[in-house]
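Notebook, student rotation project (T.W.).
Task set for the rotation: take a protein with a known small-molecule partner, predict the structure of the complex, and write up what can be learned from the model alone. Partner molecule chosen: zinc ion. Sequence and SMILES entered below by T.W., checked by me.
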Amino acid sequence: MPVCCSACEVKNAVLRRPKTGHSLCKECFFWAFEEEVHQTIISAGLFRRGETVGIGASGGKDSTVLAHVMKLLNKRHDYGLNLILLSVDEGITGYRDDSLETVKRNQQQYELPLKIVSYEELYGWTMDDIVKQVGLKNNCTFCGVFRRQALDRGAMMLHVDKICTGHNADDIAETVLMNFLRGDIARLRRCTFITTGSEGAIPRCKPLKYAYEKEIVLYAYFKKLDYFSTECIYSPNAYRGYARAFLKDLESIRPSAIIDIIHSGENLSVKEDVKMPVQGTCARCGYISSQKLCKACVLLEGLNRGLPKLGIGKHHKLQHKLLAQEPLTEREQRKLKNVDF
Amino acid sequence: MCQVEEEDGQYCQEMEGGQHGVSLAQKCMKCKEGSAALLIRAGDAFCRDCFKEYFVHKFRAMLGKNRLIFPGEKVLLALSGGPSSSAMVQQVQEGLSRAAPKKLRFAPGIVHVDEGAVCGQTQEERARTAAQMESLLKVSGFPYHIIPLEAAFKLPGSVLQFHTPGSRNNYKEAVDGFIQHQQSLHSTANEVTLTQVEERLTQLSTEDPERQDVDFTLPESTKNPPPSSVHTQRLIDLFSAVTTLTAREELLQKLRTHLILHTARTHGYSKVMMGDSCTRLAIKSMTNISLGRGAFLATDTGFSDERHGDVVVVRPMRDYSLKEISYYNHMFGVQSIFIPGLDTKASAKASIHRLTEDFMTKIQADFPSTVSTVYRTSEKLGVTPRKMNASAYVMDRCLLCMCSLDTHFAEASAFHATLVSEQFSKKTKPELSTAEKSCCMKARDGAGQCENPTKDCSSVQRGDGKSAFLRLLCYGCRLTVNDMKSLDMLPPYVLLQAEQHNRRAEMKKEIQDFLLCEDETSDAPTT
Ligand SMILES: [Zn+2]
Ligand SMILES: [Zn+2]
Ligand SMILES: [Zn+2]
Ligand SMILES: [Zn+2]
Ligand SMILES: [Zn+2]
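Predicted structure of the complex:
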């Protein structure tokens, strides 16, 4: 016997919400999903009328749904925002080629302007070239650092006021667990903020912060949204992998665990006497950094000097030499050259 | 989309680096003479004697560093029977013995909660465990109290109240007081009567009208009579009305805490020592994060836990790993008793507690520093500062766990998001709408008759009852109660106290306009 939708009590339900366990019809689910994102945007005061907002678009499900919902809510609730799709081309053969095609199709569907920034354009290196230099084991360090900046640089070029990304509740819960496991108290505190990056940097926000990954997939499925579903071919490191697997198990025991962990993260309070790293800006590129040189600039320097290990480990002592463009000693060079593949 | 962020890489390298096996030819790292008997961490090999010294020193150092236990203070040791709490009791014995160079100067007692009824033990098994426990307790020479979990049905509502701590908070003063007390003891030379007087005084000084219901207990060891089969059955019914093992485990912990607290209060103990090891606390931190109890990590896992006010919980075993404790117990013959828990036979995915324990064990095998890292992370967390004025009124504390409520914060929060999701998924919207009033509320306001005779008032009230009850709880305890089929089976002290809180809240609402200062704390959160 078909189950009746618990929201309208008229139509037959077609799905059970992973987040609440309620049975809903298609229309009521769409409405709930969209209006919940709207509530998040309004209650956190994410945008102001007249702002230009860059939507980080990778072609994956999260950013595809984000672009769709942002476009829709902007119209439905008259936010008065100027939306732009922002995409990064890392230059990974077989991965980006396909996903960029998806982004381009999305652009036509949603009639939003699209800007693609390439690694080659920004750094002079494609991801494929970087992998050749540093090996598969460390490349995700590069792809993460460079992408973060690429989005900002692209946003700056387009005079964007804010960037929003498709990070969902699962991503955030996973990050809380990971930062807790590895004792990173500063990131643990920051990772549940809905908006990050003040002073100079373009603010980034996460409108899907409270949306479950499973609901995002359901939404995309029933809306027949076109997305590219391959995970980055360079797999994430073991620690995040652990946190992810753990979160999936938790969710299977108690579906609310995802939001419960975010609640925990939002309410953690750090003792007053615990030192937090002071955030400054990179002396070379101006990006936020706790060191004199930001991670991206150190990595780039390593690539350009043919010393790929620079920036993968901790090499604080070398910072002044890099800044002054001084050569490194034989010993320092030897240590930084060899990379495990 | 690849979710990897810039920082992932470096940590993995730091975390790696495994353990080396113990080599038999190795010498003790401390005395450089004795041959190594064990390896507690990579590189730290100890001979038997040095290990003992290290272990004993650590216990004293933990107490000495925190200077929280006053000389002469009555301290209640919570003994589950497991390795950590058994080691703790043994350390206290060791510290009080004449042979100890720096003698501990407090007066210990032991409490054990018998949870057999809900952990699948038969009457015979329970009796056997109890006998085993009792012989162990007798050997300790300390006064002891064995409390069956069924005693929860006889607890007074006051156990859920915050009691303002006494004036004894100056360590120096306490030391002086102790010395004087000792001298007077020598002159009158009758310790027992003095403690008895003290006992009566503490009982008289608490203004609890329900106290009369409690049996008068002697300061010496107490062993409750075997619980009535009625209570045992009620307890079993209560636990079977909880639909998940996760919530059952949480409920058990709450009841156990209340019983220990009540025992401490009625017998004049002002400190309770819990035997949680560093390993256990690391697992507990991860578990509690997953249970939405992030706000209370410092209270739930820190050295001292002052949520109850007058009775402070301390965790002196928190610097020992479970491995160290097992080695110690094995080498020096510290006895522990195996008592099955709620989840003893459960699979790894049966509850969040079991899953987290399993997860931490596995990740610890791959990254040996995980437990100590997690433990150190939780060290850096503090008690969430009260955002509102710190009124002593209890409404701003969770009814069950007594922590400051973490549910009346900003609209832009995970908690609010869950309420919004509920709202959009249901046609009737109970939590968020302020206009909602049950028919019985109207009846109370005016004519004295229910205006809506077609509706079953009692059922409306019951539905209301649950949401009114939930409002008294912190985020995490709400999750526990949400997994209960009915509230009716909860022990009376919980229900009575909840009713009292809600009456206060209603009163507050009526007089709201006449109150001069903005006292948000005492009002139950509506959103
Ligand atoms: Zn519907
Ligand atoms: Zn990657
Ligand atoms: Zn830079
Ligand atoms: Zn030695
Ligand atoms: Zn609570």
